[in-house]
User: Which sequence fits this backbone?
């Protein structure tokens, strides 16, 4: 408990010193932060965390992943009574079709992202891409953050001051590379066996089946429990964090979740702040519907996995 | 007077009781006195020359072999139990009612109603067999009797009277050879097609359930089959997945080492191509009954172990990470709440 007191005391001290202005949401950011467009009528300015392309990317990943998961689950757990009972009402061929459509979407965003990265490198836009606070590359700070986070879990130190991307967010990012490579390549093999068997021995399909199935279980389990907890369900974000859908965060959120980046953007002004108006209530409703649908489907999938596991 | 009257009463009761007992004991004879006995039936039907002319002019023999009947499983039954529309001898001429086996054998009859044989009869197929075509008429024997047509060893011949080609295939096959050698474990026709609810072999349900029937003996192959994509599709009710008979053939089943087998190395590619029409030669090194838990297949065994390892490590680390995080935030929440209530107070 002492650490807690210390920590809250520390934070207070910081804000008292004036290093972190605007401690609460009620006060809008200064005009300096959002030069031209401010003030937007009735909509408070917020900090931009994700660009439109990044939000679309997340939607593509999310939609295709849910599609793949829900249509692949019956095959994975075809030895479960519950799955067999449900499968009676579902045309299996339709599931196969949806699975393949979602696979195409997956290959699409994956190759799209790789080409984007290649384009940035080839056209000299790769500054900060491989190292530094804006990079997705794991760096010594991430290890230190992990160590400090674990210390914080055990009340042995203050909460680490995360930068723009936390270590678990970087893990999520790289996990998609690993996952799509493993599941995507094995899935492609299994989709066109006659074609790939021209070069590959037949037992490769045995191997591909194991990898596809186990890696998919890992991916589903990870996304629907660990990712959901880290980004949505943990008590200070419960139930859903809409930042990946709206792309915008309040100043309070910025300061709480990414204090390192906040300092860079707001305090020391090393990096120009990206600001945008708060999303309209209509759009917020749309985002909420999308987010909740995905969230509940994911929870449904994990419950189905649990039930199938038990009723095997 | 009184004394005599008492004796008279007693005598009366005794007499009435005797008559009642007599009537009771003879009741079956009294009631069935009209029904002819088997002996009476055989007086006429024991004659090998007894015949009648059918409406279409054919001569129909009405001879019943008494020896055959008396060695049948029905030997103790009365003729009129089945031919129940005959009440006296001599009986009226003309067509008698069809014998209904289902009156006693209701379970078998109910199953038979769903069979492809009965559905063919109902469609008007004159070749479709009913009870008597397989079990005989008067010389019905139990299937446990080795002389019975429906005895396990004789069933292939019985079914083969119509299904000649399949009988030839079957008798050549490993199962057929085993059966011919008297191995009781070998499956006969009825083990896959059932005795009475003979399902249509091309039917969806029959094909989807084939693995269960093969699997009742080949348990290990059944388990590994269900682990494959072929088996999973079949479990989910999708016919596109290969089932036992799609690779091993339905009746010409031989061990893998036998050149006649559809899964012999030389024939395997052809077998795969029945579904995977453009399968290249490498296809045959696919392991259709792979057991990933068998260290004898190191590649698959260790691949699976590796994947399970990643699974355990990832969930172990992040599971713990999340739980610790949850407890940290919960403690903080309780702490803040208490602090707030203190300051409020």
Assistant:
């Amino acid at each position: 408990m002492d650490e807690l007191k210390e920590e809250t005391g520390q934070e207070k001290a910081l804000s008292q010193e004036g290093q972190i202005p605007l401690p609460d949401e009620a006060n809008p950011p200064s005009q300096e932060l959002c030069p031209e467009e401010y003030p937007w009528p009735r909509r408070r300015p917020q900090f931009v965390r994700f660009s439109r392309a990044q939000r679309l990317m997340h939607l593509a990943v999310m939609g295709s992943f849910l599609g793949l998961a829900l249509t692949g689950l019956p095959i994975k757990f075809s030895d479960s009574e519950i799955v067999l009972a449900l499968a009676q009402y579902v045309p299996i061929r339709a599931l196969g079709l949806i699975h393949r459509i979602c696979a195409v979407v997956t290959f699409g965003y994956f190759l799209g992202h790789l080409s984007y990265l290649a384009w940035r490198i080839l056209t000299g836009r790769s500054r900060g891409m491989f190292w530094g606070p804006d990079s997705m590359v794991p760096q010594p700070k991430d290890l230190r953050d992990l160590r400090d986070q674990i210390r914080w879990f055990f009340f042995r130190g203050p909460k680490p001051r995360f930068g723009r991307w936390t270590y678990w967010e970087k893990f999520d990012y790289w996990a998609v590379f690993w996952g799509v490579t493993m599941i995507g390549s094995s899935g492609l093999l299994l989709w066109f066996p006659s074609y790939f068997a021209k070069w590959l021995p037949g037992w490769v399909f045995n191997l591909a089946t194991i990898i596809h199935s186990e890696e998919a279980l890992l991916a589903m389990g990870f996304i629907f429990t660990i990712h959901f907890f880290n980004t949505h369900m943990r008590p200070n974000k419960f139930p859903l964090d809409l930042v990946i859908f709206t792309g915008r965060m309040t100043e309070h959120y910025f300061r709480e979740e990414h204090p390192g980046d906040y300092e860079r953007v707001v305090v020391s002004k090393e990096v120009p702040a990206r600001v945008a108006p708060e999303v309209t209530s209509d759009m917020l409703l749309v985002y909420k519907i999308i987010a909740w649908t995905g969230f509940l489907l994911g929870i449904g999938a994990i419950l189905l996995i649990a039930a199938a596991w038990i009723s095997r | 007077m009184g004394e005599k009257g008492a004796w008279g009463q007693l005598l009366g009761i005794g007499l009435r009781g005797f008559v009642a007992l007599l009537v009771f004991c003879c009741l079956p004879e009294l009631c069935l006195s009209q029904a002819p006995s088997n002996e009476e039936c055989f007086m006429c039907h024991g004659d090998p020359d007894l015949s009648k002319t059918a409406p279409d002019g054919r001569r129909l023999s009405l001879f019943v072999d008494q020896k055959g009947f008396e060695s049948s499983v029905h030997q103790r039954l009365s003729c009129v139990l089945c031919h129940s529309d005959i009440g006296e001898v001599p009986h009226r001429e003309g067509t008698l009612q069809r014998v209904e086996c289902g009156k006693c054998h209701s379970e078998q009859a109910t199953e038979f109603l769903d069979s492809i044989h009965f559905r063919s009869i109902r469609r008007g197929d004159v070749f479709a067999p009913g009870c008597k075509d397989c079990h005989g008429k008067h010389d019905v024997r139990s299937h446990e009797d080795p002389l019975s047509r429906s005895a396990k060893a004789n069933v292939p011949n019985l079914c083969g009277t119509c299904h000649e080609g399949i009988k030839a295939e079957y008798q050549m096959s490993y199962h057929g050879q085993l059966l011919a050698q008297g191995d009781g474990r070998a499956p006969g026709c009825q083990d896959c097609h059932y005795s009475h609810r003979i399902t249509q072999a091309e039917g969806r349900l029959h094909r989807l359930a084939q693995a269960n029937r093969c699997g009742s003996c080949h348990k290990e192959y059944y388990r590994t089959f269900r682990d494959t994509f072929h088996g999973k599709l079949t479990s989910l009710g999708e016919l596109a997945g290969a089932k036992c008979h799609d690779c091993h053939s339905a009746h010409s089943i031989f061990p893998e080492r036998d050149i006649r087998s559809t899964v012999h190395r030389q024939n395997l590619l052809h077998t795969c191509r029945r579904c995977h029409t453009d399968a290249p030669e490498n296809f045959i090194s696919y392991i259709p009954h792979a057991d990933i838990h068998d260290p004898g297949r190191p590649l698959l065994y260790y691949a699976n172990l590796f994947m399970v390892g990643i699974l355990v490590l990832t969930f172990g680390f992040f599971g713990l990470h999340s739980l610790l995080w949850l407890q940290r935030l919960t403690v903080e929440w309780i702490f803040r709440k208490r602090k707030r209530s203190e300051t409020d107070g």
